[in-house]
Each structure stands twice: as structure tokens, then as C-alpha cells.
Amino acid sequence: MMAKAHVTTTINGDPVEFLCDVEQTLLDVLRDELHLTGSKEGCASGDCGACSVVVDGRLVCACLMLGVEAQGHSVETIEGMATGDRLHPLQTKFLEHAALQCGVCTPGFLVAAKSLLDRNPDPTETEVRYWLAGNLCRCTGYDKIVRAVLDAAAEMRGATA
Amino acid sequence: MTDGSQEKANGATRWIGTRPVRPDGVDKVTGRARFGADVHLPNMLVGKVLRSPHAHARLKSIDTTRARSLPGVKAVVTRDDFEDLPSEFVPAGEMLVNYRDIVRNVMAREKVLYEGHPVAAVAAVGERAAKEALDLIEVGYEVLPHVMDVEEAMAPDAPLLHEDMITAGVEPAPETPSNVAKVVEFGHGDVEAGFAEADVMVEREFRTRPVHQGYIEPHSCVASFSEDGQAELWCTTQGHFIVRGHCAKLLGMEVSRLRVTASEIGGGFGGKTVVYLEPLALMLSRKSGNPVKMTMSREEVFRASGPAPGTCIRVRVGVRRDGRITAGEAELKYQAGAFQGSPVQLGCMCAFAPYDLENVKVTGYDVVANRPKATAYRAPGAPQSEFAVESVIDELAKAIGMDPVALRLKNAAKEGTRAAYGPTFGPVGLVETLEAAGAHEHYRARLAPGQGRGVASGFWFNIGGETCANLNLGEDGTIALVAGTPDIGGSRAALCLQAAEALGVDVETIRPLIADTSSLGYTFLTGGSRTAFASGMAVIEASKDMIGQLCERAAKIWDIPVDAVEWVEGEARPAGANAGEFESLPLADLAGLAGKTGGPIVGRAQINAQGAGPSFGTHVVDVDVDRETGRVEILRYTVIQDAGKAVHPDYVEGQMQGGAVQGIGWALNEEYVYDENGRLENPGFLDYRIPVCSDVPMIDTVIVEVPNPTHPYGVRGVGETPIIPPMAAIANAVEGALGIRFTDLPMSPPRVLKALDEARLPEAAD
Amino acid sequence: MRYEAPESVGEVVSLLAGDGPRGRVLAGGTDLLVQLRAGMIAPDVIIDIKGIGETREIRENGDVLVVGAAVTGAELGEHATARAMWPGVVEALELIGSTQIQGRASLAGNLCNASPAADTVPALIAAAATCTVAGPSGTRNVPVEDVCTGPGQLSLGDGEFVVAFELPKPPPRSADAYLRFIPRTEMDIAVVGAGVSLSLDEDGWCTAARVTLGAVAPTAILVEEAGAALIGTGCGDAAIEATAAAARAACRPIDDKRGTAEYRTKVAGVLAARAARTAVERARNA
Ligand SMILES: Cc1cc2nc3c(=O)[nH]c(=O)nc-3n(C[C@H](O)[C@H](O)[C@H](O)COP(=O)(O)OP(=O)(O)OC[C@H]3O[C@@H](n4cnc5c(N)ncnc54)[C@H](O)[C@@H]3O)c2cc1C
Ligand code: FES
Ligand code: FES
Asked: Neighbours of B (≥3 Cβ pairs closer than 8 A)?
């Protein structure tokens, strides 16, 4: 059997080292090795977005990246979104707007929405919908999710103005 | 003693109808909430299933020798590990299940009946060994001819799935077996006489394809058997008590020895009311002595878990020129999949339920075919039959030149209407939803040229059933609310609100918990739109129980009779002759004194909730169609529904919006593609096309409230009705846009373009 | 399975070449990982090319725009010069998958996955793009249309891989466009794709045109007759309809889970016409 690879990376700002098999995806590593189970596996083929993470500032599917590819890179997951006991405004707005029902898609949506607002603080409804088109939600019909993102954007613009 | 909950029934409420943040919300926005696949135990093995590549084959042999000797493999199970069970029907969700069939569905015995049917399972140290072990299992198949579609399966020369299946429900019983498991019939009056009175009659045949529930979280569980024969199971399910029952039966164990904990559940929509992996994981754990985790891949979810049935439906309706419907008749053929038990009966019962008809007759056929066993999907059976009827109603409205809302209003079921399926309705809200639709700005807004608008209504029964709830009073006056229905979409919030209302306390002082099967009495599943209603009723009963105890404690402290104590706004007050004599005792004070006044205070309820109260809805949709590619665009969508009483309006709206969008997927793009060997070609979200965020507009909602008299606050179930109207509403809108009536779902671009071209041909010939 | 992340083109070539372990190039991995997971491929070595500078840069080099093999959709989309020069190629790459896929998916991966439905391939062919292929005997420049020979089949030799693409700078009053048809608005593989690249003279007459189609044959195809139907015309309705007719005539599609042959053929004409109109519009404003 092949020896495991040793990988040094940064996760949510902290230095992290792990061992993994080459065929393990970043999602497998996060969930099974590091027990960061906030990123979900809905398909393992890039179709649902439940595993969304940000790598070096880019939104990606953790299921479509090998764990070994994280070497030397910086990964942000849902577990790093709140600061201390303060929720990110998107998290607060998702709660206020009831933008989740079962909640399994929620981490992916939040990570994806944050990456949108980091880039575009004032998106239109259409921009939000297309940016989030790779995140499937079967429960909500997307309405309240889109409203929560637009509202969070408005609040964050207000807060930074 | 009197308690506040009943007084509030007609009056103002403090908590019901408010929108607090759900109590489990923070866990779900931080990634902390633990779903099915998020459980890790020490020494846990990975379990995997070997599935049939054939749609229909006799299982000649299964040789697991090589797999068992692979290093790292700890257990292998096959049909030989499960005892055969006799035919026996038990309820699961809104459908009945048969243990003879369940044991065969979780692990094939004589035959494999669909591609993806399990034939063996392994548990090994790590993913890689488990996968390799599957490759080492040798299975001998004798491939048999297969049949996929309902009409083909009903043909006299069709390959038989079950050689001993004799159609039930026909007199005299047929002498030869067939794929028709049963025939059911509902109705009253004389349809032929009714049709004779009609001025206009429309008869059409409809076809719908199977669709998947499409929950984002795949099935997953962890089982841990200990040497003394006790076991624990964590799984994602809509009903852990159901899982316990099924698993105990399949493993031949007592239910008290199996403790099932429902994880957070990432969507179910009916699809997580049955067992697939759970008995296998338990058996693997029993054999290996290690905890075993099993998770389906998305591909397995599509190949082997429950679709809603595909159907073929014929509908005939007659109407007088004045808009009165004189008779309705329908024939429903539903695919049950590999084993009998499609929801055809429910489809029959719902087909004409929105209408007050003197003459109605519905016949249903439950037909097996080489597909996964059909599982409940949101209002099981109803979307298909109501699609057909609501399409015909629209056509009739056009034929007699009547507004489709007006035609529905003229015939709408209301209090006192005898439903086509038998009972007489109590207060129901169809008329109110239709009036709201007719008056809605959307219904009157101008359409641009080429666009179309459609409207359709829907009906669903809703259910109650066996339910327990406890309220554990803490020493500081806060409360743990313990329920047995998994929270699939915010029901914890709805239960806390009902408890807060009944007790007259701040909702924030109540923290909910979904108990495992050993910590609470038997509770039926989350399904049938029953949770806010039935667990709500149980919580209200438990509140009353607690209030009774609190009043007794106050009576003891004040040394007055208990019937001289009343519970108002969360505190005990002396009443009647003693009014004003003592300072009232708030809940927190009584809680603090509990130890001195008689011990812990726990409110309990174990009920069999009855009278769930049907919910009607009416949807309005505008569409545009790209005439060159056949793509239908949803421009605007409004859902109007009777919720009885919306406990937490956000989550009621959420159900309405989510159901509507699932219906949009069903109407436009969702379908399975099988090759000629009965193998699924699109087992993933890239080609099984559920709506994505950019496919849909905002979904407007109007909540109508016609209180359900059997619930203290008037609650009706709301979860299922919203998936019923979209298919017909969209078909009616497309008809409005193109003048073409679509009777086959989905109305996918190739089908729409084909129909457009066919319609254009005669024009071109002119 | 081994993972290698070489830093030079030469290392990749030596890892790929010869009869030793079977190597597979990894760019964004959005096809590769899906295929690995499904057990469709089982290479001995995965060679990640993203650590090689040449595969990651976008630069102007004389008369060409050079786009590294592993440049992602998100990166190309943010490149103003690329957008201005070849809007059709950029929009084709940006159509791939979701925002998440855009963070990884590359031109080379799209081309070398050799799917008949790949979105960027018709656009690249319409743009007359070439690719720089490195191999044991040095590098060579290959027209994009010569790379795929059939579904999953490449003309690349042993040890060869794509390092970068070269897009010629278009003459004045030129533009391209790419359109595809999918049943949803996002997250689908093309049922049909159409690319058009054309140039106009000062009077608005079309002087050159290349029309391509995807998902209607085993590989993306260049439909010369469809381009010819535009050349020498003012790109009015008749010329556009002639282009559409030529596009339809060139289709050799199959029936599969994503569409019927009949449907594909019809829609190919529709998309060729729509893409041509967009390209003309863009060229007029260029
Ligand atoms: C959810 C989802 C949606 C998608 N949607 C679309 C879509 O809309 N349109 C579309 O066209 N595709 C789509 N794809 C497929 C895929 O994303 C694209 O083909 C993408 O461009 C592949 O690029 P990559 O860098 O990820 O390739 P990789 O996966 O890294 O590689 C793909 C193949 O090319 C080979 N390869 C990669 N780079 C080189 C090179 N430099 N030289 C030689 N061989 C090389 C690899 O060995 C592999 O065989 C989708 C995929 C997913 C998962
Ligand atoms: S799990 Fe990665 S996209 Fe679905
Ligand atoms: S809330 Fe359930 S999938 Fe989105």
C-alpha cells in the first residue's frame, strides 16, 4: 500500500498538517481526517455545492480537489465564518429570513455567498442567483436564501459606509 | 383549575404567528449541526453495498469467499444473513409496507428486481478495502427480460416480477399472475347519468415520469452492536421509531434492545420514511463487532432509493354551460416499482377532492415494474392525479368561456361537501384560496404578448397519529421540550411556539430536543404534514399537564384548593374567592420551589392525534416560451394556501415556496433516463435536473387561515399541498402561451419544440 | 497512486513519457476527479501542472494572446484584455459549470477531456486558436481543431501535453460569440453549442467568418459552408438563415440522455443564427 502524503496547509487561518491518501479529496480530508464536518457531501461530483470552500480566495468544491493539492495553500470553511461568538452578517440574515429548512445546503450557500459579497458588495438579484446556481437547495425554493443574501449585502454596505 | 391555552383559541395569541429565530438555527449556520454522515466513532468500519447491474435477473449464486479473505475486511452480509419474513402490511408514512418485501428490498433474495438492488454488503477498515472487497464478490445472475413502464407492465405477455402475484381487489380473483398488484375504486353517484347531463365533455390521457425527491443529503447511518445483543443506530430519517421497528423485525431483535437516534436530516420529502442501509449496517456491525458507517453515494441514491411513481392517467369530466360539473371519472395506473404499494390509492382519493361532485368514479391500478420501489414524495400520489384533473378543468373552462378561477369556485369543495373518497369535509379553505387568487394583483396583471398564465388548485389530507412529547421543567424555570419527530424544516420552532403559547411563557425559555427511541414513547414519523399539527397537539397537551402540576404546587403553597388557582400569562394566580389574596407565583418561582413542594415537574403527553384537517392551495404562474428552442421560463409565481393557522409564518411560506419549486422541476425538466437494459443513465444532479437558483423567480406567497377546529390554535398541515398544483398550473400557462395542451411531463425543451413544430406544420402547409 | 507537482514543463514530459507508470495531467480536476471517483480512470501518477508558471499566465506576445493551459475560468473572466479581444472564448469558458467550477476549470482540461459537448472547443476553433504542445521532442503549435479526434480521443503523442493556447489578435471590426443550449439556466452540459467569429470591412460587409458547432458530432466541428454563407454579405436575415441552414446540414448528432438527434439539429441552426447575430453586433461596435 502507498504511504500517505504529508500535507501542510492553512485552514481558517491556522496552520494545519495532515496525512492523506492521494485519492482522498479535500472534502474527504476535511470531514474524515480533520472532522470538520460542516462542509457537506451531497454528490461528490461538483454538482451540488454543499462542499463549497474558499481556497486562496477562490470559491471551489472541496469534492473536486485532492487533499494533496492543499499543500501550501489556504483553505476557508464554514467553521471559520463566525468570529469568536459573533456570527457573520450572512449567518445572522440566514437565521432572520429563515433561509434554511433542513439546513444541509446552508454551509455551502453561506461560504458561496460570502465569496460573492467579498467581491461584489452590491449584487443584483440576478447576480446573486447566477453566482449561487452551483448550490442546490431542495427545500426552500431559493426565495428566502436570495433575500437573506441581498439583505446581508445591504447591511454590510451600511456597516462599512 | 383553568388553563390559558383554550381561551386563546379564538382570541389573540402572543407567540403563535410570530417569527423568532429557530432554536437550532445557530448550529445550522455554523456547520456544527450533525447530519447523518457527520457521526464518527472509534474503530468505525466503512460499509458498502454491492448492487445489481441488471434490471431483472435470477440470483443463482453469491460467492463471498475472496472478499472475506481480503485483509481489512471484517464482515460480509448477503441474503443468507436475513431471515425471510411473511407477507404483512404495516403503515410507514402515508404508505403501507410489507415485511416480506422490505427484507427483499434491502437485500435481494430470489431475484434482483431493479438496477441498484443490493446483493451483498461489506464492512472493512477504510474506504479502499471496502471497495476492493465489493469487486471480489462473485455473483451469478440469470438475466431475465425486464419491464420499465406501467402500460407495458400491464400487457398480458409482460415479464413477471413476482410469479405469485394475483391482482387483489377484483372479483372474481384472476387465475393467472400479473404485474398488477391491486385495483382500487372510489366514488359515488352515477357518472354516466352525469355525463349525459353535460354540455361539454373533455377526455384526455396523461403521462408523468417518475421523479426523485432529490434531498441534498444522501442516506447515511452508523450502527453499533455490542456483544450483549444491544445496538445503537444513528441515522438520517424522518421517523426513527419506524426505523427501529423495521430494523428490529429484520434483525430478529426486541425493540427495547435497539436505540435509534435521528441525526439532523438533510431533506427527505417522504424519501426517508423507509429503511435501506440501516438493517445492513446493523447486521455488519453485529457480525464484525465494530461500529459500521454506511453512506450512499449520490449515484446510489438515484439508482436505488425512492422515486415517486410514473403514471398513466385517463380523465373525463363533463360540465354544463353554466359551469357546473356534472361528472368526473378517472383511471389511474401507477408504477409501484419493484414491489407493490404505489400511492395509487391516495392518488385516487385526491384526484377530484377539490370539487363538490354528485357523480364521480376513480379506479386505480398498482403496477410493479423493474425500477426501485416507489417511496413517498410529498403528498404521495396526489400531484400526478391532480395534474391530470386540473388540466382538464382548465380545458373545460376555456371550452365554455369561463374564467378558470370562477369555474373552480362554482364547483369548489367546502364545509359539508361529500368528498369523492367518502368523508364529508369540515371547514376547509379552498374557496378562500380561490377568492384570494382571483383578487390577487398577479392574477390581474397584464401579460406581454406570447406569455401565458395558468392557475390550478390542490388538495391534501394531512395526517395525525401516535405522538409523544415531554416538557421537563428546569429548576430555574426554563424548559426542555422533548419531541419524537425529526426536525426537517423548522418544526422545533413551531413546537416551542405552541408550548410557549400554551404555557404563557417566553419562547426563548424553551429549548427543544429530538429524543431517541428509548427516551420517549412511540412517535410516528415526520411526514404527512403532521409534525406541527400532531407533535404540536402533544406539546399543548403536555403543557396542560404541566400547568395542572404547577397549579397544584401553588395551591399547596397557598394552602387553598387547586380549583381556586388559575394559570394566566405564565403564572399561577389565586382565583374566585381567593382572587388577589396571594401574590401570583410565576413559573420560575414554582420551578425553584419544586423540590420542596413535591418534586420534579414534567409535563407529559401521549396522544393519538386525530382531525389533521385538509389543506387546499391555489397557484398562479406566468410563463414565457422560447419558440425556437422549446424552453419554458417561469416569469412569476404565486402560491396561495390555507394553513389553518400559521404557527411560524416564515416556515409556512418556506414550505409553500419549496414545494412550488419542486413542482416546477417536476413540470419542466426532471426525469429518469434508462437505457434499453434498464440501467439509469442520469444518476446525478448534472443530468437529473432539479431547479437551480437562477431558474426560478421569487415565489410569492399568500397564507390563508381557515382554522382547523380540532387543533387548539387551528393548525393544519402545510408541507405537502404546495407540490400538487404546479404541474397543472404550468401546463395551463403553457397552453395559454402556445395554444398547445401538454399531457406528458416533463414539458422539457425537446418535447415542447416537437409539439410546436407539429402545430406549425399545418400552418406551413396552408 | 502517486501525486507529483512538478515546476517545469520538462519534468511533466519526462513523467508522462515512456512505458513506465501511466501518468495523467491534472489541471483544475473538475473532470479528472469525477472520473477518478467513478473508477473510469486509474492512473499511476497524477501530474499537477498548476505549479508551472507557463500554465498559469495570461500575456500578450506580439500578435497573439497567450493563455496558460491551467488558467481558470474565473481568472480569464477577470482579464480585461482577453474579454475585449475574444469575448466569445471568454464567455464559453465562463459558461462551464458553476462559480465553484469556475474557480478551477481550465481551457486545456476542457479540450483534453475530449467531450464532444465541451463548451470552449467550438469557441477556440472559431477563434482560430492554436495550442502549444510540449513533448519529448520539443514544442509544437497545433490548431485546436486537430487536438480531439473523437470522444475521449486526442492526437497528442506519448509524453505530450498542452502548455498554453495562442489566440491571434483579431483585425479591426472583428468579434466572436459563443452560445449553447441547456435545459436549465446553469449547471448543464451543452445539448448544442455554436461559436461564430467574423470580421467586417468598413462598409459592414463580412470579410471572414468561422462557424463552429459542439455536441452535434463526435468532436466539435468547423462548418465552412456556414461561414461562407456570411462572407461577402452584409449579414442580413437571409445570410444568417443560410448560415443556420448550413449549420443544420453539417450536424451528425446522436440521440442520448441530453437530447435527440432531431432536436440537436434544429437547435444547432437556431444557435448558429443567434451567435452570428451577436458576433455581428459586437463587430459593428468594435
Ligand atoms: C458540475 C460540473 C459542471 C460542468 N459543466 C461544464 C460545462 O458547462 N461545459 C463544459 O464544457 N464542461 C463542463 N464541465 C466539465 C469540466 O468542468 C470542464 O471540461 C473543464 O474545463 C475541465 O477543466 P479542468 O481544468 O478541470 O480539467 P481536468 O479535470 O484537470 O482535466 C480534464 C482532462 O484533461 C486532461 N488534461 C488537463 N490538462 C491537460 C493538459 N494541459 N494537457 C493535456 N491533458 C490535460 C486531464 O488529464 C483530464 O483527462 C463540468 C464539470 C462539472 C463537475
Ligand atoms: S459534494 Fe461537492 S459539489 Fe456536491
Ligand atoms: S434547506 Fe434543505 S437543501 Fe437547502
From this structure: A, C
Distance of alpha carbon B518 from its chain centroid, rounded? 25
**Chain A touched by C101 (CB under 8 Å):** yes
Which atom of ligand 2 lies nearest, measured to the CA of A136? 4
Beta-ladder partners of A76:
A54
For residues A67 and A112, membership in a common domain is answered with no
Distance between CA atoms of B200 and B198, rounded to whole angstroms? Answer: 5
Closest-CA residue of C relative to A43 is C34
The residue out of A51, A80, A109 marking a domain boundary is A80
- Closest-approaching ligand to the CA atom of A48: 2
* Phi, psi (deg, nearest 5) at residue B609: -70, 130
Give the pLDDT confidence of B528-544 residue by residue, as tens digits.
788 889 999 999 999 99
The whole-angstrom distance between residue B696's C-alpha and the CA centroid of its chain comes to 23
Q: Which CATH class, in words, describes the domain spanning C178-285? A: alpha beta
- B chain contacts of residue C189, beta-carbon cutoff 8 Å: 686-687
How confident is the model over C179-228, as pLDDT tens digits? 999 999 999 999 999 999 999 999 999 999 999 999 999 999 999 999 99
Is CATH 3.90.1170.50 correct for B38-144+213-304?
A: yes
To the nearest whole angstrom, how far is the Cα of C262 from the nearest Cα of chain B? 9
Judged against a pLDDT cut of 70, whether residue B763 lies above it is answered with no
Residue B9: the pLDDT is 44
Ligand nearest to the CA of A62: 2
- Domain spans of chain C, in order of start: 52-168, 178-285
Model confidence pLDDT, tens digit, residues C103-123: 999 999 999 999 999 999 999
CATH of domain B6-33+464-609: 3.30.365.10
With a cut of 50, say whether residue B325 has pLDDT above it: yes
Domain C52-168 falls in which CATH fold? 3.30.465
CA-wise closest residue to B210 among B388, B384, B456, B386: B384
What residues make up the domain containing A12?
A: 5-80
* B to C CB pairs, distance under 8 Å: 51
Report the C-alpha gap between A70 and A53 in whole angstroms. 12
**Rg of chain C over all Cα atoms, to the nearest angstrom:** 19
Residues A49 and A95 in one domain: no
How many domains is chain A built from? 2
Res. C76 pLDDT band, cuts 50 70 90: very high
